[in-house]
Amino acid sequence: MAGRDIPEDYLDGYDRILAEVCATGRRLTRDELESRRALGERAAEAGHGLRALVHQHLAMTRRDCPDLPRAAFDHVLGALGQVVDALAEGHERAQFLAVRQEEAARRGFIDDLLYGRSDPGTLAERAERFGLLLSHAHAVAVAEGPGSYDDAHPVTQSLEQALFGRFGNRRILYVTKDGRLVCIAPADQDEVLLYFAKQAHAVTDGGRVAIGRSQPGAGGVAHSYEEALNALDLAERMNLDGPVLRAADLLVFPVLTRDRQAMADLVRSVLSPLQKARGGVQPLLETLTAYFDSGCVAAEAARRLTLSVRAFTYRLERIHQLTGADPADPLHRYTLQTAVIGARLLDWPARQL
Q: How far apart are the C-alpha atoms of 332 and 330, rounded to whole Å?
């Protein structure tokens, strides 16, 4: 379709323009220019290249004006320049519109895919256009950094080059959504998501990446995406270490908060006595967090808080006095640790329960 043999109706009216320009030396009228723009637009929509369109007009010019005087030839060249400019403008306008329509279709598909808002059958048909086979299981990785990223951001483009330079066309979908970077890959290609996570962590200057569990079908992508977002939110609230989080490793937290009221009651009943401490509840909560995160090794926990072991041990004794729960006792320890996790999940004591 991009060759030189295109229908002559794309020359409609050009012979009349040439004849009048040769006779009068006038420039093209506004309506004539708009007619050329419209023809350029039609040619682009039909798949004809701009070079073929210009060649067609040059051929007619040579055919209809073989032996023009110098002055008339200058007029013809001026008219031809106007015609070519108008054809190019219309052709570019059509191309720009096509790109915008394609981008709108892509954005609409991504929204429907990630939020599960479309009929699964229709979604599966649309997905093939973008390289996904929703009959297979997929997993979603989401990266966030200190900034907000769109398709034109250098970070987005750098990661795209790294990802597709490494894996080529493996039915991967890489997009931006709400300022984050998102990669969707078949479930049997875990190396793609791990590479994405590694590169995303690097190009976002230490950003965090979460990977949802692989899920089957069209709705599975939305489910995996939601898991990845929840993992990022959980990491922020719990101050979890590590640049890459897997939703499969964090399933205990949704279980703990499934009965939110029961968790709030546990936090209040176990930890509210700490509010009576002279320095407030926060230092003692940090003490318990460090203790549990260090495997209940007092020396390591004290080092993390830059305290002496004696000062740290005193804090544990104070917690025992106020709550009646001994962190060294296995049963009490489990209750305290669950309550501390609940406090972090529910943002207590900053938020009243």
A: 6
Which candidate, 281, 353, 262, places its Cα nearest to that of 323?
A: 281
Q: Tens digit of pLDDT per residue, the chain (353 long)?
A: 334 467 878 888 888 888 888 888 888 888 888 888 888 888 888 888 888 888 888 888 878 776 667 667 777 777 888 888 888 888 888 777 776 767 777 888 888 889 877 777 788 888 888 878 888 899 999 999 998 999 889 999 999 999 998 998 778 899 999 999 999 999 999 999 999 999 999 999 989 999 999 999 888 999 999 999 999 998 888 878 778 999 988 888 877 778 889 989 999 999 999 999 888 899 999 999 999 989 999 999 999 999 999 999 999 999 999 999 999 888 899 999 999 999 988 889 988 87
In the three-class reduction of DSSP (H, G, I as helix; E, B as strand; rest coil), residue 171 is classed as: coil
Separation of alpha carbons 40 and 38, rounded Å: 5
CA 336/CA 52 separation, integer angstroms = 77
Q: Are the C-beta atoms of 166 and 117 separated by less than 8 Å?
A: no
Pairing of strands 208-211, 138-144: antiparallel
**Closest by alpha carbon to 346, among 218, 256, 219, 220?**
256
What DSSP line would sit under 219-267, residue for residue? HHHHHHHHHHHHHHHHHHHHT--SSEEEGGGGTHHHHHTSSHHHHHHHH
How does DSSP classify residue 215? B
**Assigned token pair, 194:** 């791990």
R_g over Cα of the chain = 33
pTM of the predicted structure, to 2 decimals: 0.64
